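Predict the assembly for these two chains.
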Amino acid sequence: MSTRIGIMGYGNLGKGVELAIRQNDDMELVGVFTRRDPSTVTICTEGVPVMNAAALEDGSAPAIDVLILCGGSATDLPEMTPKYAALYNVIDSFDTHAKIPDHFAAVDAAAKAAGTTALISAGWDPGLFSLNRLFGNCFLPEGSDYTFWGKGISQGHSDAIRRIEGVADAKQYTIPIDSALEAVRSGENPELTTREKHTRECFVVLEEGADAAKVAEEIVTMPNYFDAYDTTVHFISQEELDAEHSAMPHGGFVLRSGKTAGDKTCIIEYSLKLDSNPEFTASVLVAYARAIARLNAEGSIGAKSVFDIAPAYLSPFDGDYLRAHML
Amino acid sequence: MSTRIGIMGYGNLGKGVELAIRQNDDMELVGVFTRRDPSTVTICTEGVPVMNAAALEDGSAPAIDVLILCGGSATDLPEMTPKYAALYNVIDSFDTHAKIPDHFAAVDAAAKAAGTTALISAGWDPGLFSLNRLFGNCFLPEGSDYTFWGKGISQGHSDAIRRIEGVADAKQYTIPIDSALEAVRSGENPELTTREKHTRECFVVLEEGADAAKVAEEIVTMPNYFDAYDTTVHFISQEELDAEHSAMPHGGFVLRSGKTAGDKTCIIEYSLKLDSNPEFTASVLVAYARAIARLNAEGSIGAKSVFDIAPAYLSPFDGDYLRAHML
């Protein structure tokens, strides 16, 4: 029997989940749920209902094995994940690192009371990058961790630029600095400042009559977002922004550089190069949905992170197949 | 309380395990066991007994939580792992990929009958590379797998050269071809022949009076080992071999290149650069020993592979710490 998936929230990530389900024959999309007027939401899959989010609470939603929560971390998920964990097995991609302990506790309480299983902070960072930080620390207990992001679009930094007076639209790329990456790969264990690890490149559309020099100055001096980086600002037209910068690539690198007790240098490197950040994140969520459905069927309830999921649970294949073909 | 580790077999890997335990405060080496005369074996750790392997069966060994089996895959482990799984929780690094299903079945039967927990095929390949093959296939169901090994010394190929008449000693390096790696990284999904993926470089010491041209010809035409590769042979002195080629570096690359259902290219790359193959492999075994001790304490018995181990079990830190610091 297929694992029946519901999608709560139909933005880029929700749409990515819808697409990812098509690549997994054992998964079935049974409903898309939205806080918007469902009649205004058009999905890609024929025959699947789009329903108001209220349907998840009033008993009118179809049977769901795992509900994938595709809301934002700032305000949606802190409320949404505990709420729906009280009703369904759920997965989210909560990515506010500093608030993960509180979020985990709230979701765990709700899931345990309801007998559901809830995975928080799945995706690639947090998620796959977290796994590689953990593995690196376990296999090389004496060493240094390095995470580089990009080249990719940072939604938060793009939003910050858009809030500046005179800016009509903007996209911001986070770019890892090659020489820093190479220094880490060489085993030098460099101590790298913020400025030495990444640059930021901004493509900005001005409103009519806006002062370009003033906008540029506001960007490069913006505390927390840009002041600690070398930042380049390009002013372009809305047409060029739409044509050249509407894709959502991302990726990055996690490295662990350490020494064995015999003083031998070992370097573990994990990297992602993603032409679509939301579509890849969605693919990760769908694989973890398979794991969550299985864990719940086994009676393993409460909140989980990717650290708690044995890798075999992610695969549609059984242990015999995996050992014969992938071990 | 510490996890009490026994080491069965004291070659490069066994010594690596002894060293790796020093980097893990929650692990304690309680004994080294050997089929040699124990009085001929000197270990690095004071106060730890070196005992004949018979002690593992006659009740004279100290209490052991996990016995790490550091034998060879060709003849030692197929016999050793089921035998000791009937007595102890065990870990091996069995690496004959084609025989993994049989080995797993034999170990599983022994461990289940005895109530022990046994991890087979841990290390980096099989092991960490296997995990990355599995993850890649789960997150990008439509795609291609690539594994490159090296630059590193292949024990099997070095041994094959040493068996040639006229050869006194030899070391063989397996070297991935950069242009092939770059083609994979570009997302082209190339179909690569054996010759296109790796070259082989041999450093050979001749016996006095041996015919260099004949030895070189025998090497490069050796079926299975060298005939499908571009192979370079260097003749050097024993002194140079000992001075320049006695380290045991290795490593490699696992890549998954795939497309999302939205036709976006995504590439996952995992790589290791190891100045000591046995010391790093040993570090991996020690982290998995922690997991196996925990699983056995929870009543999870029988044979396991790395696919069955939730990553959190590898760490000395608890879930709260891991979520706060690594997620």
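Chain B has a mean pLDDT of 97. DSSP finds twelve helices and 14 strands in chain B.
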